[in-house]
Amino acid sequence: LGSGSFSTVKQAHDRETGQAVAVKCIKRKTLPPDEIDALKDEVSILKQISHPNIIHMHDFFEEPENYYLVMEVMSGGELFDRIVQKSYYNEKEARDLVKILLDAICYMHDRNIVHRDLKPENLLLQNRDNDSEIRLADFGFAKRVKGNLSLSTQCGTPGYVAPEILKGDKYGLAVDIWSIGVITYILLGGYPPFHDDNQATLYKKIKSGDFVFHPEYWDPVSKEAKDLITRMLTVDYEKRLTAKDALNHPWI
User: Fold this and answer.
1) Residue 207 annotated as lining a ligand binding site
2) Burial class (CB in 10 A: 0-12, 13-18, 19+), 168
3) Complete domains list, the chain, with CATH
4) pLDDT digits (tens, 9 = 90+) for 176-198
5) Is 131 designated active site?
6) pLDDT tens digits, residue range 41-56?
7) Is the distance from CB of 16 to CB of 45 less than 8 angstroms?
8) Which of 41, 81, 96, 117 is catalytic?
9) Any idea which positions bind ATP (predicted)?
10) For residue 103, what are the contacts with CB-CB under 8 A and spacing of at least 6?
């Protein structure tokens, strides 16, 4: 089904039930120590969560040469590819997706778990016929938060990463809301709010919250949708909406 630097993903079947599963095979000897710690964090978190829109881990095995994560199969590909194919979403389609994502993140945040790498590539479609059957995946950067601002590791994906991470500040759950703001902007506008070929310039734009709603693309979009995006892309994390606040926003 796919491969990465340290792993391959293969389709398999449960011998007892016949159910199709995806097995992520990770070679132990090629995995650096910090990646082993991250994998164990990921497995620990996946064991503790169960939500209809978060990818389900069926099992985890350790052998002398490999680790195996047994996950549910998602045959519809990444939301990223669907966005490229469609260019942009109408408000109802975008709202359905954002509501699902916020609901999953609200569930995680209620349990003090932050994802830290929300982006369309990590939202998987159950099948190619229904965009609303999505699952949040890739918990490699997910972390349990002790207190509101307990994290300091710089991680995430350029373009989606929150300003407080780039500034080197202590941060918490609010970084996920920033990323959802970016995703919502992309769904409705068809392009990212922060973009520059020069990474230093891109990071400067993110840190200052320098984005606009260009009239030629955004005039048809409702004020409520733009208000939600603006409140999620608020540089001051203390004034940024929480997942619960966002779920109660008039646009949702």
Assistant:
1) no
2) exposed
3) 2-72 (3.30.200.20), 79-247 (1.10.510.10)
4) 999 999 999 999 999 999 999 99
5) no
6) 899 999 999 999 999 9
7) no
8) 117
9) 24
10) 51, 53, 247
